[in-house]
Structure formats: structure tokens, C-alpha cells
Amino acid sequence: MTHAQGHLSEDVRAIIAEEEALLTRVQATLEAARRKAGRAQEDRGLVAQLQALRDEAASAAEADLPHLFFQMDQTRALLDRQESAQLPDAQAPYFAHLRLAGDAGPRDYLLGRTTFADVSAGVRVIDWRFAPIARVFYSYEEGDAYEEQFGERLAEGTVEVRRLVVIERGVLTRIISGALVLERAQDGTWHGVGRDVTALRAGGAGSAARPGALGTGKGARRAEDAFGVTALLDAEQYEAVSVDASHPLLVLGSAGSGKTTVALHRLAKIAFDDPAKYPQARMKLIVPEEGLARLSRRLLAPLGLGRVSVDTLDHWLLATARSAFNLPGIKLSPETPPLVSRFKRHPALRRLLLGRIGAPKTQAGTTLERLHRRLADAYLDRHFVEDVVNKAKGELPRTVIDEVLEHTRLQRSTPLEKELKDITDPERLITVDGKALEDDTPYALAGTVDLEDLPILMFLKAQQGPLGLERLAHMVLDEAEDFSLFELFVVRKLLGKGRSCTLAGDEMQQTEAGFAGWPEALDELGIRDASTCRLQVSYRCPASVVELARQVLGTQAPAESTAQPPRAGAPVGFHHFPVEAQAQLFVGEALRDLVSREPHASVGVIASSPESADAVYRVVADQAWARRVKDGEFSFEPGVDVTDVGSVKGLEFDYVILPDVTARAWPVDDESRRRLHVAITRTSHQLWVVSSGARSHLIPAAGAATPP
Ligand SMILES: Nc1ncnc2c1ncn2[C@@H]1O[C@H](COP(=O)(O)OP(=O)(O)OP(=O)(O)O)[C@@H](O)[C@H]1O
Description:
Blueprint: H1 10-44, H2 46-59, H3 65-85, E1 96-102, E2 105-112, E3 116-118, E4 123-127, H4 131-139, E5 145-150, E6 153-168, E7 171-177, E8 180-184, E9 190-193, H5 195-198, H6 235-241, E10 249-253, H7 259-273, E11 283-287, H8 290-300, E12 309-312, H9 313-324, H10 338-345, H11 347-357, H12 368-379, H13 382-391, H14 399-412, H15 416-419, H16 453-462, E13 474-478, H17 485-495, E14 501-505, H18 518-525, E15 531-535, H19 543-553, E16 573-577, H20 580-597, E17 602-607, H21 610-618, E18 626-628, E19 639-644, E20 653-658, H22 670-680, E21 683-692
Helix pairs in contact: 2-3, 6-7, 9-16, 11-13, 12-16, 13-14, 16-17, 17-18, 19-22
The structure holds adenosine-5'-triphosphate.
């Protein structure tokens, strides 16, 4: 329900007038400050330098002009940067307005990303990371009495005003105060609208009513405001963000509850509070997949954390192992069989390995080559491999035993180049297809190391002495349930005594069996005393999606949260067809229709495997808006990303279509349940489940006709 300007009450109109006047005042003050800063530059000489260049250009020979102009451009750019670096952006200077009535009378504070004050004009913009004021904003509601320590002093008072404001391109466009939501239309008139419609979330173009149709017809994604989720952190999230930097923190919560959001904002606050102890160059974020690494880099930049390095687990392992073993390169196996990889990452191996191998006795025994040889001996010992499988209590199938033995044998075999060293005629070593001789043959594995072995080799080396790695000041592990115990061991070594880290995770999203559990993971990191926060609100997914995700998890689903129920939203659409080709054509048609109506929406078509994603992609491959995303190379532009469940952890799309929910693609086992759960919970607005032939039994029978 909306109320146009004429119908707004006196009080509401007063709020709008007050906020508009406040913004005008802030912008005028900023403009004055900018001019003053410009004058101050003259003393520093940049303006003088620019003038000198101009004078020189007036009388210079023509041949010298390009060079002079280049220098003038550089000086001007430098000037611009210095001027704007210290002042808030006038286009979006703040995201919230707080008025506190305390002992000294009422005071207005504005929360933004850069601190700026002109007390005579009554303007105080405070960086959201600045503790006392921000804590009041995030922890209290309008009308609440507050009591907070402001430095030495205990401050008490009342929160008179607590409003979220959205300023887009210098214009105030939304005001949110408790349940009151006001929006400015294009023509400048203000309307009151229901909170559900305007929730300040990325994506989703409104609320679709029917499961049979995708989207709402609204057609365009709302321009995102410059502060995004920073303005919306809830009290529990802010509490977690503010945990002391030196203290380890474990952030748990269901999919879309804001774990990544909390971890990244904590990083921003730590870097702000103590930049000398926690410089960005010594903080690192590690995530399991490339897609999430790309997303994290995009999220870090506006938080002022552009210099924090973000790595995928694989990339980080290789780089760290090269430093630890002081090697320019390590010959990795082109492909490790999935079961072998699972064996090497399983906690049972961590528990038994030292008992079998023992610590290296001398420094000389800690080269990668020697350690790898000892490790391979253990992998070739059938009794030992059987022991590990037995200890894994059914999480590793018995077929893995022969696979580990065979794979290790091939890695230990003599590399082809050594076998062929007697052939001197180079012509005889060239293949018809131009590939290396050993490619696509078992020889390709000879002399290689598996990526999964790298943390194990570093673990073994560390039993003898230090790894010799540069310490990090703070590490964030996102999707921490995907880290093996050996990997956590290496993280511990990188953190040293500092122990400053943030783990964000959800055991329901582990992509393969074998997560050791949080107590053992914390133990491995040496942070058994970590603070734990369990986020309760599901922000990303609407209620229908949350419910389906729970049903898919079956008995693995955690107890239902007693906190705020998920927001209402579009029902899940279930579409079943006799044959696959029909399902694919249907998906293609639905996508064409949706994109024509909502060109700014983001759509994820998430298949069960890369091969299945290829098949679905064929029906839309000729469309400019369709992208077949492989290896996590998401662009995060509007349009359709066709991908598979192995690449989407941590990501979200306005619309998600699961194109192949068949019994074959999604069998009934725990791992499949968790993977389907990950795919389903990428949805921020509406989900379609499409199937053909025999539908997956993970989808409740009622889901065939009536959405849950
Ligand atoms: N307090 C909040 N208010 C509104 N939206 C929020 C809030 N916290 C987080 N969000 C939004 O919810 C979505 C999910 O957040 P985030 O990705 O941090 O969740 P997550 O728990 O890490 O998810 P996953 O388990 O899938 O990795 C994002 O769009 C984020 O901006």
C-alpha cells in the first residue's frame, strides 16, 4: 500500500523536510571544506606547480607541449585525489542519521565511511567503524534509552532519531525509520510504502505472486545505494564485527544469514581501529572457490580494503608450499581422482599419519622430495590406508583403498623423459596432435605431487622446525567447513602467537563428507577459546526457499531457529517434463521472457554438473545476455549465468533455476542433499526447480504440484 505526498501526515512531512534540509546543509559544508582544502593545497605547492607548468606551456615550443600537458594532467590528478581523500563523497556522504539526547542536549550524528565535522554548522559525519557512536546506532532502536562508554566517560541518554537514509547521486531518495518507509519518486514527490517492498537488499525486483511465472514485470533492478549492507547490520552482527581484534572469532549461521558480511566488516573495523598492528598488506582472506574470491574482492573495495589479498584455497596452498620449501615451482598432478582427494583431506588421515610416518629427524629430511617419498610409502602401505578408511567410519568407501594405491604407484613411476633419455632424435618425441608425449597417459602422473599433499607435507616439515613463512596479522577463512585439518594446521603456523582470525562457516554446506566438526577444527588452529556467534536471521532467501532447503537436508537439517522468521516472498516454482529436451526448451523460453522484462536482474542457472550446464547452455548460447561460466569466472553483471553447483558457494542471484533436478543427477545421499541445499539457497528472490523423467527424491512429493 502506498500513500502519495498529499496523504502523508504532518509528522511524516516534517521528517522529509528535516532530512532534506540536513543533506543540503552537509553538502554546503562539504563544498566549503573542499574549497578550503583547495586553498590549503597552495601551501603544499601543488597548485603553484600547476601554475608554473601553465606559464611554461604558454611560451614553450610546440614539440614540448605534449610532455607539459602530461605533467599538468598528473599534477591535477594528484590534487583531486588529495582533496577528495579526506572528505566524504558529496554524492553519498552518509547512510544514517542518529540524534542522541544526552546531558549536553541533543546532538545529530551522521554515519558514513569518512569522518568529517564542522561543529559550528552542526555537521558531524562519523565513520561507521568508529566504536561509541556506531555502537549506539547498531544496538539501539529509536526511543530507546542508551548507556555506553564514550572513552573515559559513561554516556547516557535517549535515541531520539534513528533513520536510515539513501542518498543517490546527491539526492535523498529513501528514508527508513522503524516501520516507516518513505520513497522519493522520479518527479520529486514522496510516498510512504510498506517495508517488505523496499527492503534495502540487493537484487529482486519486487515480489512475484505466482510460482508459474518468473519475476514481477517491474523490469529493472533498483540502483544499489553506495553503502549497501553496512547500513543494515543488525545488533547481533555488529556485536560480532566488534569482537576484539586479537581474539579469534567463529561466525556460524545458515545460508544467507550474513556470515561473509560479518567477516568482511570485521576486517574493515580491525584495519580501521589499529592500522599499525593490522596493516592490510598482512591480512588475508581465503575462500574455497574462484567465484567467491571474485565476489569478496568486489565487496572489500567499498569497505576500503582494496589492499587485502584474497586467495582461493588452491592458489594459497601452492604459493605457501613454494615459500615453505623454497621452490620456484612444484610439479602438480594434472588431476587427482576425487576419491583420492577426499582420502587425503579426511580428518582420519590427520589423526593417524604421524603415528605411521613419525617426525623427520633432521633438517635435511625436510625437503619436499624426501617428505613426499615418505608420504608415498605410507600411501602404498595397504594396511595403513585400510586403517584410515576404517577410522573414517563409513565416510570413505572401501574402493578408495585401491585407488590410493594405484594413484600413488603412478606418481612414483619413472617420468617418461627419464625413460626416453636414450632417444636422441627429437623428431621421434613429437606427437601427432602436438601434445607432450605423456599427456593423457598414466605417465602424466609420474613425479607429480597432489595439491592435497601440500598441506600434509608442510605439516610434516613443521614437526621438525619452523616453516619459515612470513606471519600474517589476521586471516579470514570463509566457508571454513571446506578446510581440511592439515590446511588449518598451516593457517595456525601463519598466524603464530597472534591467533587473530575470523572463521565463517556452515556445516550444512560442506561440499564433501569429512568435516571434522568445529571443536576439532578450532583445536587444530589452537583457538579452542574462540568467541562464537550464531547468526539467526536468514536475509538472502525468502521463506519458501528456506523451507525447501530444510526439507532437502532431511535429518541433517539443524533445529529450526527461534529468531525472526524469513521474509515472505515468491513461492518456489516446480516444473516437471517427460523428457530432458522439453525441460531445457522450457528453461530457454522462460529465460528469454524474463530477461526481456527485467534486463537488470541477475539469474543463475545452476546445474548438477559442468556437463549438464553445457547442455542447458546450448539452448540460450546465441543470446548476448547468456554466459556459460566456468572455473568461477563470474562477472556479476546483469544477465544469465549458466554454471554448476561446484562453482556457486557463497554467491547469490535474484533468480535461480535448477534445470536438472532428476533422480540421477541428485541421488538420495547426504552429500547430494548438502549440494542441492547449496544450489537452492543461492536465491534472493525466486526459485524454479525444473525436472524431467524421474524427479529427484530429494524434492518432497508435495513439491510436484504445490510449492511448500
Ligand atoms: N543485516 C542485514 N540486513 C539485510 N541484508 C543483509 C544483512 N546481512 C546480510 N545481508 C545480505 O544477505 C545476503 C547474504 O549475506 P552473506 O553472503 O554474508 O551470507 P552468508 O551467511 O555468508 O551466506 P552463505 O552461507 O551462502 O555463504 C547478502 O546479500 C547480504 O548483503
